[in-house]
Structure formats: structure tokens, C-alpha cells
Design brief:
The complex is a heterodimer of chains A (316) and B (424). Chain A is 38% helix and 14% strand. With 316 residues, chain A is α/β, with parallel strands linked by helices. In chain B, strands 1, 2, 3, 4, 5, 16, 17 and 18 form an eight-stranded mixed sheet that branches. An eight-stranded parallel sheet of chain B has the order 6-7-8-9-10-13-14-15, sandwiched between helices. In chain B, helix 2 runs parallel beside helix 3 and helix 7 (209-225) packs parallel to helix 8. Classes of the chains: A alpha/beta (316), B alpha/beta (424).
């Protein structure tokens, strides 16, 4: 495939599928646009008419509350019509293929698809087959990418840390199965973060992760030393059944973020988590609710960032 | 039927012959080279000037999808594709539906293929009933019905005790066992090589040790049982090294590689190109180079098309869910020629990997250009450029990573048993 799957001929964003390969200018444009939308949330009239008359279809083939809700709120604040489709219990179970579903919905004059799917590459597949006027936003595909989550994380970091070029960032937890981690790594490298660390046991790290531009740590004490930003990842319970880990207790002991481990980071370090959190598994409640945690603001920024992405796509 | 093929560049990989000459065919044999036999009156003359005349290609792995999977392809469509690709003999693995584990199924397949009068079909019988890896098939019966070897296709045997017994039983009767080395537990649900591409794309990975550990088990069981084994579609540098060492020890071992793996690597998956979802997975650049080196020094004996036609719908899915495989019958020749050019190999050497060597593995008389040899021939234009496209491909499967690419080399005439089965 010669052309970039998510940019149009003019190099503008046509779909948002991954943060990989996105130019820094586009990332900054999204962050700046999101900044301008943060005020909207506080206004009395919370709507702006940028997407009036447009239909946004939320296609969630995998259960999600937070991501789907923030996309819905974002679309509604832009005055779009939002149609939520819970595909996990819909036509897919009746044997309709993914592309059949998408073609049928395209015929209903969709302008934008927000897609969550448990298979890596699902959003790319849809983007390749939709008509020229339809935009696709990847809301998470398998282990591959979750670009809007990474963008809201970048937005959060910029809020609290300003300059990306002087940061030490650690991503901690199940990197192997994490679409969030992959998207974060690509965004952080593009924005010029000089030191990105991943901290995890060997069973939760994919082969040659160093090739993505990160330093690998297996030890929390070393991995957290002097970092400015800690990005925690959710640990799925099925990792115990698939022989990746012995128990959540042992995981918490060595890789859970506790106040004792947090002191190894810089005193002004911020703690992030994409949610939903497993308290006492990857993060201690004291840290999650502590004054270095920015986990709740993250959620709020998610709306502004998704508004930014949708409005930019609709304008291109 | 008497046919004279005039002025062609005759290449016989087995003997190294490579010169311009004439070929005289009578009935199903080559009866003379260069000198016109007395009383020879040709019914047909083929002008082969500027063309190469070589033995018909022999393909060690072509799925014809019959019985049971006709929605993907039929014997008619795929044997037509075979002869259009210059292939005159092919072995088909037993992963049909039902698998080739009963003599009746094998006889039916042979019978259907014979009636079509296209490429010669050599079924590989199932090593275990239903390919389940539990009970042995009636190998002698299957052999009598026409099976030339026994294999598990792409279904590995979990229980090594069963594999050992199967190899012992096959060895008793001198049957060859064909195995693709892959440990099922280490492969897990993987769909791509364990490397940077799988990491980038978030695809479940298959480590190289899934191949090398299975290979080490097979080699140990060969020593234990005395069975001779043909390894199908090896994929990794470490696998090649194991095969090389085993051959140096004198184990009765042969080995092939898929033509896709001679050219492509995991990076060619790009942004989830489902046509690159192959089994074994495309591996890294160092692996591809090692496969090429293995072909050069004879560690790998043959190149196969690993033909697997898949219907469009089965490929229009997210990468991991898409059916594995690529259509290959019509690409085996041009892709082998491309490899020869890239590795500066002589044509006789390169063509040997798709004619004489695989014929020897099958134990058939084809694959040579000599007086008395079967008149199974491929007459091809080495300078014909063509673009791989849905309309050009005769196979029912249009699934290939090479779609849209320009390749060089195309069959003009294919002859089987002295008959022109392809070409005007």
C-alpha cells in the first residue's frame, strides 16, 4: 500500500486509525483544537454547530462505557446526530460480516464511524472500504491502537508538563496486550519525548519493543527513577489463565504502583491511567486518589480531544 | 500425436543441458532431441524461437479444495490455473473436507483429475484419521489408492507418541512422511512472525522456536524410527541451520520452501494486508536471506507454490480472522525466475528447484528433458512481462500479495503426456 492509510492527498487527516506515522504538526493541531474546546464544556450552552446535520455512528463490537460515552458526548456537543450500535449483541452474531455491516450503515448516510473492535486492523479494514466522504475513527482495535486515548494522554501531559522535549516518561504494565501503550509510544516519540521507558515482566512485553524507541525495564525501582510522567496500564484478569502471570497479588507486589514506589519518581511527577482501574492490582488507591494523580482530569480532556478529532476530520 | 518443438532453448536442470535445439514427441514420450527420427511426421509443430523449453513444473503443495471446499476453488479452476502456470504435476495436501483419510476419497480425486486431463495430481494422504493426531490411517490402502506420501497438512500432532508410531508404521512400508514443523502450543493463536511488525501492529505472534522445537522433535524421531521425512515449507534461519546439520549427518531428509517466503518478509504485511496472512508466517529479512542461502547450497531441495485459493469474503476480514494462504500456481514460475535474477543464478539451477528436485521427492519420472522421459513440458517466454491481476489469474482465488505487481516470465505452451493442454 503506497499511500498513507489515514491521510488524504493533501496530507490532511482523513481517518484517525493510529498515532503511528502521524506528523507532529497534525498531533499539535489536534491538541491545540482540543484546547479551544475545553471552554465549551464549562459554558451554559454546551453546543457548537460544527457537525450539525452530520451522522456519527458509534460501532462498538466490544463492550465499552467510558470511550463510547465520551465519543457520544463529544459528537453531541458538536451538534451531530449520534447513533449508538452495540454490535457485540447485534448482526455480527447473526453471521453478517464486518464489511457487510459497514456497507449497510454507509447506505444510511453515515458521515463518520467510530469503531471499537477486538481484532487488530479492524479500523484499517473499514477505512479501506468506506466511500470517499466517510471518516473512520479508531476507538480501539485489538492490541494495535487506541489513538484518541493516546491523544488525550498527550493533552494531559502538555497541561501539566508543558514541554515534551524535557520529559522522562514511564509506561508500566501489560505492554504486550495494550493498544493504549502502542499508541502512546508512537505519539510520545513523534512529539519528541527524549526518554520513554516501558516497565513490565518479560511475559508482558512484545518482541523487539525497543525498535519502537523505548527503553525496557523489568524492575520498578529502576524504571521509575526520576521520571516525570507515569502511565499505568490496566491488567486483564485473563493474563493469569494464559500463563503470563501467577497472580494479581504477586503482580501488585512487584509492579503495582504504591506510594513507596511513587517516591522514586520526581516529586512533581504525574500519575495517569486510561481506566478502568483495578485498584490493588496495578495501582494502589492511595496513589490513584492522591494529589499526583491526574486520572480524573484525563477523562474530562477526553471529550475535548474527541471533539477536536471529529471537527478536524469533518473539515478535511 | 506427434509434435515437434523447434528452435527452443532446451533446459534440462538434471543434466545441466542448456542449448538451442529441437524436441520430438511421440505419444506420451520425448523420443528424440535434435535429430528428426526416421518416418517422423509431425501433426503439430511448435515454433519455440525465443522461448525456453523445460520439463513441466512439479509443485509440492497445491490445495485444490476438493472435496468439500468448492466454494473456494474447484478442480476445474485450479488445474486450469496449474497448466497456465506451466505446472504439469502437483501434490495436494490432505486438508480437504473431509480430509484425505480414506481410499475412496483419494480414488475419487484421482478419477476426477484424470477426466479433466490437466495437470497430474498426486494426493498426499492423511497421516492420522481426520488429521486429528490420534489414530493412524490405513496407509497401505491409501497408498494403493494413489497416495504418494502421508502428512498432517497444517495440523500438527500434539502427542509425539502418536507421531512416533505414525513414522514407524510409514517406515515399515517405505512410505515418506511429509511434515510441516510447527509446535501447536508455541504457535498458540499466533498469526505473524514474532518481530517488529507483529509488535507494531499488535498481532499475536508465532516465535521461531515453534518451528525449531518441532523440527528438533521430528529429527529425533527420524533417528528413532528410521522414517524418511520431507519437511514442508520451512520458514526460519534457525530452521534452515537445523536441516543443514541433519543432512550432514546423513538423515534421509528433504525440504521445501514456499515461493512467497523466498521473496516476502513480515514487513510486507504493511497495514494489515490479509493477503500476507500466510502459514507459516512471513518472517524477518535475515530469515528470508537464510532460506535463499539454503536453496543455493541444497539444504532446501525445492520451491513450492503453497497454493491456497481463498474466496474474497474470507480475506475481507481483520488480519487475524482472515483465512490463511495465497494463490500461487500461476506465480511459481515467474517468482522463481525473479529469485534467479536477484541471486544471479543460472536458469538450469533455478528451474531445478521447481522441476527435477521436486520430481525426485515425489518419486516420479517427470521433471527431466531426455529421450524416453515423459512429454510433460513447459514452454515459456522468459521475457514476457505481465501484471498480476484478477483478470489474468485463472485460479478461482485471486488472493496474492503480488496483486498489481509486474512479473516476468509466462508459460506459452504446457504439454502433458504429449498433449498440448495449455497454449493455442
Amino acid at each position: 500500500m503506497g499511500i498513507h492509510p489515514q491521510l488524504n492527498r493533501n496530507g490532511e487527516l482523513r481517518h484517525l486509525l493510529t498515532t503511528e506515522g502521524l506528523p507532529a504538526a497534525i498531533l499539535y493541531h489536534i491538541l491545540d483544537t482540543a484546547e479551544s474546546f475545553t471552554g465549551v464544556t464549562e459554558r451554559d450552552v454546551k453546543k457548537i454547530p460544527l457537525l450539525r446535520g452530520k451522522s456519527v455512528f458509534n460501532l462498538f463490537f466490544e463492550p465499552s462505557t467510558r470511550t463510547r460515552t465520551t465519543f457520544e458526548i463529544a459528537a453531541k456537543r458538536l451538534s451531530a446526530d449520534v447513533i449508538n450500535l452495540n454490535m457485540a449483541i447485534s448482526s455480527q452474531t447473526k453471521g453478517e460480516t464486518l464489511l457487510d455491516t459497514v456497507n449497510n450503515l454507509s447506505a444510511m448516510h453515515a458521515d463518520m464511524f467510530v469503531v471499537r473492535h477486538n481484532q487488530s486492523g479492524a479500523a484499517h479494514l473499514i477505512a479501506r472500504h468506506v466511500g470517499p466522504d466517510i471518516h473512520v475513527i479508531n476507538a480501539g482495535d485489538g492490541w494495535h491502537a487506541h489513538p484518541t486515548q493516546a491523544l488525550l494522554d498527550m493533552f494531559t501531559i502538555r497541561r501539566y508538563k508543558q514541554d515534551f522535549h524535557a520529559l522522562r516518561v514511564a509506561i508500566i504494565g501489560d505492554i504486550l496486550h495494550s493498544r493504549v501503550a502502542r499508541s502512546q509510544i508512537h505519539a510520545l516519540t513523534t512529539l519528541g519525548v527524549p526518554e520513554i521507558r516501558v516497565v513490565a515482566p518479560k511475559t508482558l512485553l512484545p518482541d523487539r519493543i525497543e525498535q519502537l524507541g523505548v527503553h525496557v525495564y523489568h524492575n520498578m525501582a529502576q524504571g521509575l527513577k526520576d521520571v516525570d510522567v507515569l502511565m499505568m496500564l490496566r491488567l486483564q484478569h485473563e493474563r493469569m489463565e494464559s500463563a503470563h502471570l501467577p497472580s494479581t497479588e504477586e503482580y501488585f507486589k512487584y509492579y503495582g504502583l504504591t506510594p513507596e514506589k511513587l517516591v522514586l519518581a520526581r516529586p512533581d511527577a504525574i500519575v495517569m491511567h486510561p481506566g478502568p482501574m483495578n485498584r490493588g492490582v496495578e495501582i494502589d488507591s492511595e496513589v490513584a486518589d492522591g494529589n499526583q494523580s491526574v486520572i480524573l482530569p484525563q477523562v474530562g480532556f477526553g471529550i475535548a480531544v474527541r471533539m477536536a478529532v471529529m471537527s478536524i476530520l469533518a473539515g478535511n | 500425436m506427434h509434435i515437434c518443438i523447434r528452435n527452443g532453448r532446451l533446459i534440462d536442470p538434471g543434466s545441466g543441458m542448456d542449448r538451442i535445439g529441437d524436441l520430438y514427441l511421440a505419444e506420451d514420450r520425448i523420443i528424440s532431441i535434435d535429430s528428426r527420427p526416421a518416418h517422423f511426421r509431425d501433426d503439430r509443430e511448435i515454433d519455440a524461437s525465443e522461448l525456453i523449453v523445460c520439463p513441466g513444473l512439479v509443485d509440492l503443495s497445491a490445495r485444490l479444495r476438493e472435496p468439500g471446499l468448492e466454494y473456494m476453488a474447484t478442480l476445474e479452476s485450479e488445474l486450469e490455473a496449474a497448466v497456465a502456470g506451466g505446472i504439469t504435476s502437483l501434490a495436494c495436501p490432505p486438508d480437504t473436507d473431509p480430509p484425505l483419510d480414506e481410499p475412496g476419497l483419494v480414488e475419487m480425486l484421482k478419477h476426477r483429475a484424470r477426466n479433466l486431463d490437466r495437470a497430474q495430481v498426486y494426493p498426499v494422504g492423511a497421516l492420522t484419521q481426520g488429521l486429528k493426531g490420534e489414530r493412524l490411517t490405513e496407509m497401505v490402502e491409501l497408498h494403493d489408492a494413489g497416495c504418494i506420501a502421508f502428512s498432517q497438512a497444517d495440523v500438527p500432532i500434539a502427542n509425539l507418541h502418536v507421531l512416533m508410531r505414525a513414522m514407524q508404521y510409514a517406515a515399515t512400508f517405505g512410505f515418506k512422511v511429509w511434515l510441516r514443523p510447527q509446535d501447536m502450543h508455541l504457535a498458540n493463536q499466533g498469526v505473524a512472525h514474532d518481530g517488529e511488525t507483529a509488535t507494531r501492529l499488535g498481532l499475536p505472534a508465532i516465535p521461531v522456536c515453534a518451528e525449531t522445537i518441532a523440527l528438533a522433535s521430528i529429527l529425533a524421531l527420524m533417528k528413532e524410527t528410521g522414517a524418511s521425512v520431507h519437511l514442508c515449507r520451512i520458514s526460519s534461519a534457525e530452521g534452515v541451520a537445523l536441516v543443514r546439520a541433519a543432512k550432514q549427518q546423513g538423515l534421509p531428509l528433504t525440504c521445501d520452501v514456499s515461493v512467497h517466503h523466498v521473496h516476502l518478509i513480515d514487513m510486507d504485511i504493511g497495514f494489515f494486508d490479509a493477503n500476507c496472512h500466510l502459514m507459516p508466517p512471513l518472517r524477518g529479512l535475515a530469515d528470508r536471506d537464510a532460506l535463499r542461502a539454503g536453496l543455493m547450497d541444497g539444504t532446501i531441495d525445492a520451491i513450492c507454490s503453497d497454493h491456497a485459493p481463498v474466496d474474497d469474503d474470507a480475506k475481507l476480514l481483520p488480519f487475524a480472522q482472515a483465512e490463511t494462504g495465497a494463490t500461487g500456481l500461476e506465480l511459481l514460475l515467474p517468482l522463481t525466475l525473479k529469485w534467479a535474477v536477484e541471486n544471479r543464478l543460472s536458469l538450469p539451477e533455478a528451474l531445478g528447484r521447481i522441476t527435477a528436485c521436486p520430481a525426485r521427492i515425489l518419486g516420479i519420472g517427470a521433471g527431466r528433458l531426455a529421450v524416453g522421459a515423459p512429454a510433460d513440458l513447459c514452454v515459456f517466454d522468459p521475457d514476457a512481462y505481465w501484471i498480476v491481476s484478477n483478470t489474468e489469474l485463472k485460479s478461482q482465488g485471486k488472493n496474492t500479495p503480488f496483486l498489481g505487481m509486474e512479473l516476468c516470465g509466462r508459460a506459452r505452451f504446457t504439454l502433458i503426456g504429449g498433449h498440448i493442454v495449455y497454449g493455442e
